[in-house]
Amino acid sequence: AADVTNRRLIVVDVSSLEIVEAINVSGFPYDLQYVSGRDELWVLNWAERVTGLITQVHGDNGTLAVIKNAMEKLTHTVTDVPLRHAIHSFHITDSCHLRDEERFGYVTHIEEPGIHEVDLAAREISRFIDLSSRGCHGTYGFTYSTGSDYGFVQCFTNEKKTLQAQYPIHMKTGTVINVLTVNTGLPHISPDGKYIVSLNEHVISALYVNEERTIQIGEPIKTSMSLSDATFIARDDGYDVYVTARDMSAVVLIHASPSGMETQKLLTDVGLSKKKDWDRVKRSIVTGCEYDARYLATPATAEDAVFIIDGQRQVVSGHAQKIRGAQALVWVSGE
Question: What is the pTM assigned to this prediction?
Answer without folding.
Answer: 0.85
